[in-house]
Input
Amino acid sequence: MRAIVSMMVLLVGCGTSVVPGTDGGGLDAAARDGATGSDAGPCGPFECTLDCEHGFTRDARGCEQCACNPPPVEACVDDTECVIARVATGCCSCERGYPRSRVDAEPCLVERGEAPPSGCLPDPEVCAAVDCAACEPLVRAFCDVDTCSQASDCLAGDVEFRQRCVPACASHADCTLAADYGSCCGGCSATPRAYFDLDPCFRERASDTSCAPAPGACDGLGCASPASDCTTFGGAAVCMADGSCREGGAGGACPAGSHDEASVCVPD
Output
């Protein structure tokens, strides 16, 4: 069995990775069972004779170190201890719910919206040859019987916005026009104000956030960048009867096929 495993080992980035399965994890680096290896990639040579059941630790760059990971901490007490994350080293790494403490402890276990360290990226040539199954779109992580889990739908009273769950709007005042000022491209769109608590880059005005693309990141993309002030547009965001926010007409008029009742657009 070890001979078969050793044939699957691929040197990727820094340290050693393996061809992952559809769960995104693949075989653990510990499958080398004490074998030594080296890699002249960005992390430099790596050699280790330890037999680590839970793989090797990694530094802040995602490079393997000759020390064993502790057993993973999977237990949770409430939903706030769980986040949506993925294993960045896998070609077919799908997101799922993980304990925040584990994500904080493992550099290559990356929370949604965060960029993985360079040493955690799989070999693109290897991934190009892997046929990955489609991942289930997730909107929330939660604690279920002491274990972090995940779901593709929101709880009653919440609505989905940008793959996150936010409280349903109760009136037009809960909605506004806003943009992602951390992005190179995009425009102003109807946004639940509750989403501002989840994304510091999503705001009504560029001056309301310190987010901005890295210098040179937008060069050559040929797309329009977000307007500096979404509140200057003639339209407005309105609250719909299903709890979502949509763009209305001039002066905050309800979209076609609906009319205003108590500051909510309801079907005609």
In short: Residues 167-212+224-267 form one domain.
